[in-house]
Amino acid sequence: MQYGLDSACLASLQAMPGFLRVFGYPNPNLTGGYGIDGTFQQLIGSLLTLGAFLSSIFAGAFAHFFGRKPALWLACLLTALGAAIQIGTTSWGVVYLGRLVLGVGNGFLVTFSNIYCAEAAPAHLRAVLVALFSEWVNIGSIVGAAVTNATSRFLDKSSYQIPLGIQFIVPAVLSAGLFFVPESPRYLVNKGRLDEGRKALEVLRSDSLDEEQFELEWVEMVKGIEEERKLASSVGPLDMFRGNNRSNLRRTLLCFGVIATQTESGAWFLISYTTYFLVVAGLGVDEAFKYSVMQTCLGFIGVNVGIYLMRHVVGRRSIMMIGSLTQGLCMLIVAVTATTSAGTLVARNCLIAFTSLYMFSYNAFVGAASYPVATEVVSTRLRTWTVGSAISLGYFLAWLTGFCSPYFINPENLNWGARYGYIWAGSNLACGIFFFLFLPELKGRTLEEIDELFERRVPAWKFKTTKTNISEAALKEVRNRGVGSTEPKELAEPVELIETAHK
């Protein structure tokens, strides 16, 4: 939610007269009567992603020593501090500092919220729970867009200080809520703290599983982590690129590729510059703000559609391929219309319609599925290192997009406007090819089953049908202990029991 709030505020502030009176310059030739310095625009948009890039690089080391909860507490402190710095200044330099601090906090929030959810969720709900990241991003975007729309007519500092002030809500609520949340059980087991890990899993599962199903999940978790330890004597950043059968390298490249497709789809461009882009395209300030609110609402609907599709209809691989195709077509149509009908009402309406459809489709497909895939495709032992590094790469690409996009769309530079969509249409095509050739289907698998499939070097197209051994071994061990029953009984088929537990 914090991430969505800031993205919506940043996209709107650049078109807000009250903000531009303090940080911009008068220009009666522009819509709204004010302009903004290109360098300042680039830096306030890119410093947050630069800060997130830096924090994500160190996420693996921090989590290895301190865990997931301390990282989230630190993130809350930094995001609140970053917002406070921006509220209390009229200096460009201090705003830059606030954006950087906020970015460092946001990098930790994004990395560890996704990692925690992936490690704490049961297999059949993992995609849904990790996809709630996108749900809350959109809720934050809706709230941020609504607040900035309400303050956009103010001509004093409150026009931007109020939107920045609502960014204290998430750190305050999350900091308090973390006292009632256990540490990740997989992290505790990986550190050898088995008793604490079991208690954490008991808190997370509560009474949702019977005793035998709980023991099956616990034994499978412990056995999977033990197997990983046998294959590697160390845990560090270099292990992401080596390991038994080079499986770690394959998993790292997949994780990096999936996170990179968030930027390569063009989403970061629209998230960062939607309102400003609409103003440049000829819409009035009031119209641009209203349409930006509409687009965030469509994105929220899209996330829920994507969650439903992943849970009940199709797998991650299909979702990602459908998303790339749909997003690419939206970008292509916008660009073609801007080329053939520039400056006309048709071009303006096409821009509004297909950027809105793009936001719906991105949130329904790639936006909803990318974080679930990125967090589950990597090994438990290296999850914080790999996901942190991948998110830092994603933020670097987002920073590059935020830094370069004004040159393409601004009238005083290349003045491409909506023709910028040609680049993103081609990029989406490349993403679709990547998903088709290399991305395995992970739906319904436990994290330990995924570890086994990669260690066995199963090709991507065979993941869905290949049977694993770790589930059967865990079931055998649980039944040998006689857990959940005092009388002998015929053993159920492993697949049957696992499916029952997942349901």
UniProtKB/TrEMBL annotation:
Molecular-function GO terms, alphabetical: carbohydrate:proton symporter activity
TM segment ranges: 40-63, 70-88, 94-116, 128-148, 160-181, 252-271, 291-310, 322-345, 351-373, 385-409, 421-439
Keywords, in A-Z order: Membrane, Transmembrane, Transmembrane helix
Residue ranges of every copy of the Major facilitator superfamily (MFS) profile domain listed in the record: 1-443
Keyword Transmembrane helix: yes
One cellular component term from this protein's GO annotations in UniProt: membrane
Membrane-topology annotation of the record: Multi-pass membrane protein
Location in or out of the cell: Membrane
PROSITE patterns listed in its UniProt record: MFS (PS50850), SUGAR_TRANSPORT_2 (PS00217)
Similarity field: Belongs to the major facilitator superfamily. Sugar transporter (TC 2.A.1.1) family.
Protein name in UniProt: Major facilitator superfamily (MFS) profile domain-containing protein
Source species of the chain: Thermothelomyces thermophilus (strain ATCC 42464 / BCRC 31852 / DSM 1799) (Sporotrichum thermophile)
Lineage: Eukaryota, Fungi, Dikarya, Ascomycota, Pezizomycotina
